[in-house]
Amino acid sequence: MSAIDTLPPLRQVIADHGLSARKSLGQNFLLDLNLTAKIARQAGDMTECDVLEIGPGPGGLTRGLLAEGARKVLAIEKDMRCMPALAEIATAYPDRLEVINGDALEVDPLAHLTPPIRVAANLPYNVGTELLVRWLTPKDWPPFWQSLTLMFQKEVAERIVAKPGSKTYGRLAILAQWRADAKIVMHLPPGAFTPPPKVSSAVVHLNALPEPRYPADAKVLSHVVAKAFNQRRKMLRASLKGVAPDMEDRLRAAGIEPTDRAEQIDLERFCALAREVART
Fold first, then answer.
1. What are the tens digits of pLDDT across the range 13-33?
2. Alpha-carbon span 93 to 71, nearest angstrom
3. What is the pLDDT of residues 171-213, one digit of tens each?
4. In terms of C-beta density within 10 A (0-12 exposed, 13-18 middle, 19 or more buried), how is residue 91 classed?
5. What does the alpha-carbon distance between residue 200 and residue 31 come to, in Å, rounded to a whole number?
6. What is the domain-level CATH number for residue 54?
7. What does the pLDDT average to over 80-104?
8. pLDDT for the residue 1
9. C-beta of residue 30 within 8 angstroms of C-beta of residue 122
10. 8 A C-beta contact, residue 82 and residue 19
């Protein structure tokens, strides 16, 4: 009997349904239900929120979210093998779990969710960063989500919260910190997972800001930052050559020396540069 509900322990669920983790799907299962409940608590009070979960697998975090009081969980799972195990959870938590068998990169979850909405997931490694970038760069802001509580490889988590001057500082840090408060709230060793990955993991919590920290056009900012960090060892006058006419003048107008490198430039000045680039 598990510590958080009346369903079987996850090892038994995995054995009963033959759910060996598949590398091709980026799967690493968390089996400690007390740990998945702890991760769920990092998402905050969910009693009046719908929660979107990507890649629930056998349902460890799903059970944590429901046990911690989520009003409803929408779980999107690509692996058909997991459907029977998730159906058992849905039966144990009547009318609070909806499961969609599909690819999270292709499914629109909003038709199945009622605001306010939070996202909580042990993201499959092979789609985690792409999903995060999508959630950070919607057409309109504020986004559909209030907060994101997401598990990544430790290296990716560190890139999200990185500060200027560090080796991990780059496009992901700027996109995340421009529109959200981001912090690492948990660290998990490889041994917490089955099978153990080769790297440590970390949980990042992001709260959406009502408005971006500094004014800038999202597409222009993303383009400028991508170009700047694509050749991060180069001076900005070289890496941004061709982005706009008189690029060196625009860099100086944004408070940036043309000889600076991308990792030296803070979010505020990147936003100022995006505004300079956007003007005709």
1. 999 998 877 777 667 788 899
2. 11
3. 999 999 999 999 999 999 999 888 888 899 999 999 999 999 9
4. exposed
5. 16
6. 3.40.50.150
7. 97
8. 39
9. yes
10. yes
Per-residue pLDDT for 257 more than 90? yes
**pLDDT score of 22:** 79
Do 272 and 135 belong together in one domain? no
The tally of domains found in the chain comes to 2
CA angle 145–268–152, rounded 5-degree value? 45
- Domain residues for 80? 10-208
Q: Residues 128, 226: one domain?
A: no
Residue with more model confidence, 2 or 79: 79
Q: Could you identify the residue written with the tokens 């060196």?
A: 248
Kindly give the pairing relationship between strand 180-188 and strand 117-122. unpaired
State the Cα–Cα distance between residues 186 and 41, nearest whole angstrom.
11
Residue predicted with more confidence, 125 or 227? 227
